[in-house]
Specification:
Shape: globular
Structural class: alpha+beta
Number of strands: 10
Order of helices and strands: EEHHEEHHHEEEEEHE
CATH class of the largest domain: Mainly Beta
CATH superfamily of the largest domain: RlpA-like domain
Number of domains: 2
CATH architecture of the largest domain: Beta Barrel
CATH topology of the largest domain: Barwin-like endoglucanases
Strand order of the largest sheet: 9-6-8-7-10
Strand content: 15-25%
Helix content: 10-25%
Length: about 230
């Protein structure tokens, strides 16, 4: 597998780490991790938990009213495959209709197939709890700074440098409005699914309203990296 990047030691040498399906079926329980209190929180909805894996961070509201922020700690190493892509390839949702909302609606209508679909995305993310000094701030990004709604963009870390300003020029932010989207943004984060020189994920913010916007952002746009003149060949 060309995407093999993380492994685990065995008597016969390193092998691929457990994938999502294996972990959710209990592969780690017998590896000395059970009973150590490593769980951060239990979520009521498995789909919510999965989309936190997609986003790589979340702010949780606990039953006692406290906030808990979780952020990326490690990954299993397999290639990420989005549920929208999986459902489109299976003929369940037309590719042009794939949004977070349409994927959630499909899962709600087919609860007996949730594991079947989610386990096709073999990638699994592990989280750590992060301090919440100000609950209004965004999650801590790959650049080790809080994300800013509408101004932070995630890029391919192998191609772009954190802190690079990008000018985004598109016909609209989502497929459901016609207002041009033109904005200066800063590269402050990355992600497993963000690959290529002209792929960027915009941080919409925290909360339900921001999530609804993020779920329908999938538009083409011109993507300009701004660099000092003296660095231009």
């Amino acid at each position: 597998d060309p995407y093999f990047a993380f492994g685990r030691a065995t008597p016969n040498g390193p092998v691929e780490y457990f994938d999502r399906g294996e972990i959710e079926r209990g592969a780690l329980v017998g590896k000395g991790l059970a009973g150590k209190g490593l769980e951060i929180a239990w979520l009521a909805d498995k789909i919510d938990a999965f989309f936190i894996h997609v986003q790589g961070a979340a702010r949780l509201t606990m039953t006692d009213g406290r906030f808990c922020r979780v952020t990326y700690a490690a990954k299993s190493g397999q290639r990420f495959t989005g549920p929208g892509k999986i459902l489109s390839e299976l003929g369940e949702i037309p590719l042009e209709a794939v949004t977070m909302q349409s994927v959630r609606a499909w899962f709600k209508a087919h609860p007996d197939r949730i594991d079947e679909i989610l386990w096709r995305n073999r990638s699994y993310i592990f989280f750590r709890e992060a301090a919440v000094d100000d609950p209004e701030l965004g999650p801590i990004a790959g650049a080790k700074v809080p994300l800013t709604p509408g101004r932070s963009v995630a890029v391919d870390r192998l191609l772009h440098t954190f802190g690079t300003p990008f000018y985004i020029d598109g016909p609209s932010l989502t497929a459901f409005d016609d207002k041009p989207f033109r904005r200066l943004m800063i590269a402050q984060d990355t992600g497993s699914a963000i690959t290529g020189p002209a792929r960027g994920d915009l941080f919409a913010g925290t909360g339900h309203a921001a999530g609804e916007i993020a779920g329908v952002v999938r538009n083409p746009a011109d993507f300009y990296a701004l660099i000092p003149r003296q660095l231009v060949p």
